[in-house]
């Protein structure tokens, strides 16, 4: 079974808010890359983790939520081309080998694995006290892999099984 989230049309948005359709692992979310879409997706992620048959332990769950919040927050704040909405998809796959979070968006190309891109993000868009989110993600992740293909950013963050 798979957790999936269908988006239903709304007249005022090109990419509609999500309506959950929950089955099981992996957890799949699709949502508009807006603050409201982010908020709804985070609540849906938490609900899906609550219903997970093989629930992650408290520390692993904290890391899942931390990585989700930091990566999606950056996508929503910095990824939209001028005048265009973003589309975001996230898959959370929890298994005995580890936890993989896969993020895809159709925003501006940005490689969070490249320290030079991270520096540009901080210099251009973040306040002086910001910039710690990617450092936190790197600290808890066992690996991060980025690619740009078919006009999509794709980031896979792997967390260890705790």
Any key phrases for this structure?
162 residues, alpha+beta, Heat Shock Protein 90, five-stranded antiparallel β-sheet, 4 helices
| Rg | 15 Å
- Largest β sheet strand count, sense and barrel closure: 5 strands, antiparallel
How far the N terminus sits from the C terminus, by CA atoms, comes to: 24 Å
- Helix and strand succession? EEEHHEEHHEE
Query: Taking strands numbered 1, 2, ... along the chain, how are they ordered across the largest sheet?
Result: 3-4-5-7-6
Strand content: 25-35%
CATH class: Alpha Beta
CATH topology: Heat Shock Protein 90
Q: What's the CATH architecture?
A: 2-Layer Sandwich
SS-based structural class?
alpha+beta
- The coarse overall form would be globular
Q: What's the pLDDT, averaged over the residues?
A: 80
Low-confidence stretches: 1-23, 119-124
In total, the number of domains comes to 1
What's the β-strand tally? 7
Could you state the CATH homologous superfamily? Answer: Histidine kinase-like ATPase, C-terminal domain
Q: Tally the helices.
A: 4
What's the helical proportion of residues? Answer: 25-40%
């Amino acid at each position: 079974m798979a957790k999936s989230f269908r988006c239903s049309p709304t007249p005022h948005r090109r990419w509609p808010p999500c309506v959950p359709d929950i089955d099981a692992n992996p957890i799949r979310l699709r949502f508009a890359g807006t603050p409201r879409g982010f908020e709804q997706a985070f609540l849906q992620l938490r609900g899906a983790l609550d219903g997970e048959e093989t629930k992650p332990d408290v520390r692993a769950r904290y890391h899942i939520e931390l990585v989700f919040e930091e990566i999606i927050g950056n996508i929503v704040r910095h990824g939209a081309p001028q005048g265009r909405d973003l589309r975001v998809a996230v898959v959370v796959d929890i298994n005995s080998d580890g936890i993989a979070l896969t993020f895809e968006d159709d925003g501006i190309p940005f490689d969070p694995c490249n320290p030079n891109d991270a520096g540009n993000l901080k210099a251009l868009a973040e306040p002086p006290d910001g910039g710690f989110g990617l450092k936190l993600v790197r600290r808890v992740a066992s690996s991060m892999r980025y690619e740009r293909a078919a006009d999509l950013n794709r980031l896979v963050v792997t967390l260890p099984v705790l």
